[in-house]
Design brief:
The complex is a heterodimer of chains A (77) and B (346). Chain A is mostly beta strands and 77 residues long. Chain A is built from no helices and 8 strands. Chain A has a single domain, classed as OB fold (Dihydrolipoamide Acetyltransferase, E2P) (Beta Barrel), CATH 2.40.50.100. Helices cover 0% and strands 48% of the residues of chain A. In chain A, 32% of the residues are buried. Chain B is α/β, with parallel strands linked by helices. Chain B has 2 domains: 187 residues, Rossmann fold, CATH 3.40.50; 128 residues, Rossmann fold, CATH 3.40.50.920. Helix content of chain B is 35%, strand content 20%. A 7-stranded mixed sheet of chain B has the order 4-3-5-6-8-7-13, sandwiched between helices. The chains are: A mainly beta (77), B alpha/beta (346). At the A-B interface, strand 2, strand 3 and strand 4 of A face strand 2 of B.
């Protein structure tokens, strides 16, 4: 059973592209529920992304990689 | 001097940006001590324009995280008043370049009250400020100026280069009974919207800890040449040293971490072993940190050096706005590499 983490909607445009600015964890590391695992940005607005559950994180988008709201950027196994 | 005291990589290492490490240190000290509060331009709702106070307003509310009007003399003076009455303010001067309008408060009051009161009144205040260039912000928003403040007696001056030290130095600064100028380079903050070195994101313990003020760290041991630096330039020095190691040249990189007190013993100990030194400093070349290090060596033992004292510093010109011009004068990877190779005699 794995949990998907999606790129959040930061503006009104559902298709607006953003980037995964910084991964604060490495692929395959254990994470705890609520741990901040990434900073994502659209234009110059950035927000933290938290792990929704504990587990092992798998990163699916590279740092500086482009994403749109709903893109699965990581999975917790 | 402490050999790099960062924890070895653990299986579940928590990593933070330098910006998050700073705000976490402030938050933990605010939880521990109700006398700690934050004041400055855009520190509350915006979270600090370089992220040094992100999230603190939500956690502590507007009575302890206070947005101020654009009057640096007013709010730094208010911070000094709070400090002499026993509070422990963390005040942010948005850019160090703005010191021109509030230097009387900083130098004639914050730095001197302890002395002029015969030691009876302390000023346990942290003045934190953003420094440095490299992103085309022009001559009034890009200076480092730690040499300017280090020149003036009465202040401690700390300058972290990575998230671990940033948190520990902020904790130590808040707990210190002296006024501390805490200078963070925008380029070490790990901001999403600014070009960043991976060294700006690193392991940071969740619990509270102090990095001692006045202690340098050996960021990278080596035998061939001593490289002394700080802040963003330190990150570049480590990049260059790693590259040169692949070519058989082992540079020892010392991260000063504090400018005042300056860890002269750490510099002399390393130079005593290598006999060669390169100081890499983004602050102005003349009458500053790099010259002070040269004097330290000359006053101790001029015979320590087996190659000319060498520095990569900012030429004595205002910071250019045009990016190609700015990168001609910054201590870039290329300039640092050329200096180390030249001093090493390779």
């Amino acid at each position: 059973m794995s949990v998907e983490i999606t790129f959040p909607a930061l503006g009104k445009d559902p298709d607006q592209q953003g980037v995964v600015a910084t991964w604060l964890v490495r692929d395959g590391e254990p994470v705890t529920a609520g741990q901040v695992i990434a900073e994502v940005a659209v234009d110059k607005v950035s927000v933290d992304v938290e792990a929704p559950t504990a587990g092992t994180v798998r990163l699916l988008v590279p740092e500086e990689g482009v994403a749109t709201p709903g893109t699965v950027i990581a999975r917790i196994e | 001097m402490t050999v790099t005291d960062q924890p070895a990589a653990a299986s579940a290492t928590r990593r933070l940006t330098t910006a998050k490490a700073i705000s976490e240190a402030i938050a933990q000290e605010m939880e521990r001590d109700p006398e700690v509060f934050v004041m400055g331009e855009d520190v509350a709702a915006y979270g600090g324009i370089f992220g040094s106070t992100t999230g603190l307003l939500d956690q502590f509310g507007p009575t302890r995280i206070i947005d101020t009007p654009i009057s640096e003399t007013g709010f730094i003076g208010a911070g000094i008043g709070a400090a002499v009455e026993g509070m422990r303010p963390v005040v942010e001067l948005m850019f160090v370049d703005f010191f021109g309008v509030c230097m009387d408060q900083i130098y004639n009051h914050m730095a001197k009250i302890h002395y002029e009161s015969g030691g009876n009144v302390t000023v346990p205040m942290v003045l934190m400020t953003a420094v440095g260039g490299g992103y085309s912000d022009g001559a009034q928003h890009s200076q480092c100026l730690w040499g300017t403040f280090a020149h003036l007696p009465g202040l401690k001056v700390v300058v972290p280069s990575n998230p671990y030290d940033a948190k520990g130095l902020m904790t130590a600064a808040i707990r210190d009974d002296n006024p501390v100028l805490y200078m963070f380079h925008k380029g070490v903050m790990g901001l999403p919207w600014m070009a960043k070195n991976p060294r700006s994101i690193g392991p940071v313990p969740a619990e509270s800890y102090e990095v001692p003020i006045g202690k340098a760290a050996v960021a990278r041991p080596g035998r061939d040449v001593t490289v002394v630096s700080l802040s963003l330039s330190l990150q570049r020095c480590l990049d260059v040293a790693d590259e040169l190691a692949g070519e058989g040249l082992e540079a020892e990189v010392i991260d000063l971490r504090s400018v005042v007190p300056l860890d002269r013993e750490a510099i002399l100990e390393s130079v005593g072993r290598t006999g060669k030194i390169v100081v890499v400093d983004e602050d102005y070349r003349s009458f500053g940190l790099s010259g002070e290090i040269a004097a330290t060596i000359a006053e101790s033992d001029p015979g320590l050096l087996r190659a000319p004292f060498t520095r990569v510093a900012y030429p004595d010109v205002p910071v250019p706005y045009a990016r190609p011009l700015e990168y001609e004068v910054l201590p870039t990877h290329r300039r640092i590499r050329e200096a180390i190779v030249s001093v090493a005699g390779r």
